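DM from R.C. (forwarded with permission)

"hey, sorry to bug you on a friday — could you get me a structure for this? deadline for the figure draft is monday and I only need the backbone to look sensible"
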Amino acid sequence: MSIIIAMCTYALTMSISPGPVNAITMTSGLNHGIYRTIPFVAGATIGFTLLLFAIGLGAAELTTLFPQFMKAIGYVGAAFMLYMAYKIAFAKGTVSLEEGTEPGFYQGMLLNILNPKAWIASISGVTAFTTKGDPSSLFLFCGLYFVICFIGVGAWAVVGRQAKVLIQTEKHLRLFNIFMGTGLAAVALYLLFA
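My reply, with the result:
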């Protein structure tokens, strides 16, 4: 039972801690509401769980055999984060919701697969909580992580929606979008040059 508690604690800590996916989730929650942010949250959760499962099956070996692979993931991930930062920072500061402007399922999935934080969390988690040659520990860890990741990332949409009370005007919304886009761009640039 204690290994399950440890797995859950790790999954919650990694899922709810600030990062690019959670910044976009919070921004979307504020701009578009919780309901319209769910596809992004679902995509991010499924993308992460697929990554976790692939690493559990042996994809982590790629980073050892081909160290440039992890560097390439970092560059592609940072470029995608810069693209998302641009979309956030230059989003219209309108209070009315426009159809199709919120990040969707595929953006969430792709962002988490390309997110270096997700790779590090997956490699660390698989190393700590699964037994090589025992698929049951990997399935358990992935199942727990899936549920907890959805809740943890989804909580950021709720936080964003609650921030709507503080951000009442289009000017405030525009400033919030610029702030969040700039923050995400800073994370991407840090990853590029770290």
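R.C.: lifesaver. The two ends are 38 Å apart (CA to CA).
me: no worries. The longest helix spans residues 34-65.
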